[in-house]
Each structure stands twice: as C-alpha cells, then as structure tokens.
Write a structure and sequence with these properties.
Layout lengths: L8 E4 L2 E4 H10 L3 H24 L2 H18 L9 H18 L13 H16 L5 H7 L3 H12 L4 H8 L6 H29 L4 H6 L2
Antiparallel strand pairs: 1-2
Helix pairs in contact: 1-2, 2-3, 2-4, 2-5, 3-4, 3-5, 4-8, 6-9, 8-9
Length: 217
C-alpha cells in the first residue's frame, strides 16, 4: 500500500498517470462513474485496511467500506475538491464506520449502485491479505487505545499522511486555513503524547525494538 507522501500512480495506455490528476480530468469531463471506479480501485485497498485497523472486525470494516463507496458515488456531484479525493474517501470511511457503530442495524444494508461491483471486487481481492497480517506487541498496545488515537496513529504512521491530511480526515470543524493549521497543531501534540504512552507501556511489557515499531520505521 502506498504511503501518503507519494502520489498514487496507475497505468493508462502503458503510461503511469497520477490518480488525482486523472480524477480532475474525468470530473471536468463529467465522467463521474469513471472517477468513482478509479478512486475505489486505486485507494480502496488502503482505505479498507484503515477500516480493519479501526473496527478490529473484518465484517464491520467490509460493511463500512461498502457504505463509504456508496457515499463517495452519491457525493461526487457535490465534491468541491477542497481536499484531495483520497483524503475525502478516508473521511467518508471514518464517518461510515462511526454510523455503523452507532446503529449496528446498518450492517450489510448499503444501497446497490453503479459502484457496488467495483467495491465488491476490491473487498474480495484485499481482505485475504489483511487477514494474514501479523500483529506485534506494539500493535496490541495500539489496539487498546481509544478510537481517535488509533485513527491518528494509523493515518500518520501507517499511511504516512501529512498533518494537513490527517487534520482534514479527523476533524469536521475545518472551515479555513487557520482552522486547518490549528487542528493540525493540536493533533501533532496529541501524537507525541500517545507515542510516549505507547513507549512507556512497551517498556513495562519488555517489548524489544519498541521505538522502531512506534515510529513505523
């Protein structure tokens, strides 16, 4: 899975094309189904992995992923491009999982749309690899954190996202560049606090190479 700092590429006619650039071109041409397919195919595996890490349940993560894909499809006509489409997809995924946790009856009730088959293909190809991942001692400590702290660590360490991207995904209170900077600064401070907490717990448990695992190196 690509880390956040490297623009995602895909092949088109034998050439590597940056996903966000192609999304913009397709949106300008009004090809929203092609946009949705490209976004779900390109970013879907990492978004699904993010949901598995957050939900700690593959069924719930899969249901939230399907709903996030439907939300993306329905929301594309109103998407203004204030953030990257990848950041927006992660935000939709976080919201979909939150709704599912509040209302478990939403499980497996995502509407069927033009993007459903694409979402199902991504799930079927990605889930076997996610199920085979091995957890470290530090991962076990991270799993005990509250939801916001786990989201923070996953986005920053596992996905390598910028602080602005992390802030956009985690906060619904951003309305200006000043708000974005303020939220990003608060999250950076919290990030250091949480890493210190994990290191302390890891040392108490006698975990070797905790610093490497905590920093994602």
């Amino acid at each position: 899975m690509a880390r956040g700092g490297t623009p995602r590429q895909y092949m088109l006619g034998g050439m590597e094309i940056e996903v966000e650039v192609e999304v913009e071109r397709l949106r300008d041409e009004g090809k929203l189904k092609e946009v949705a397919t490209l976004v779900v195919t390109s970013y879907g595996p990492e978004v699904l992995g993010f949901l598995v890490a957050m939900a700690r349940d593959h069924a719930d993560a899969g249901d939230a992923f399907s709903q996030a894909c439907e939300d993306l499809w329905r929301g594309l006509p109103r998407f203004r491009g204030d953030a990257s489409v990848k950041t927006w997809f992660y935000t939709l995924a976080r919201h979909a999982l939150s709704r599912l946790k509040r209302s478990p009856e939403l499980r497996r009730r995502a509407a069927v749309s033009a993007i459903s088959q694409c979402a199902d293909r991504v799930r079927s190809r990605t889930e076997p690899y996610l199920r085979s991942e091995v957890s470290s001692g530090v991962a076990a400590i991270r799993a005990q954190l509250d939801d916001d702290d786990r989201v923070l660590l996953t986005l920053r360490i596992d996905r390598g996202m910028s602080w602005n991207e992390v802030a956009q995904i985690m906060s619904d209170e951003i309305g200006s560049p000043h708000d974005l900077a303020r939220v990003a600064a608060r999250l950076r401070q919290r990030f250091q606090t949480v890493k210190g907490l994990i290191r302390a717990r890891a040392r108490a448990m006698g975990i070797v190479d905790a610093d490497r695992d905590v920093d994602g190196r």
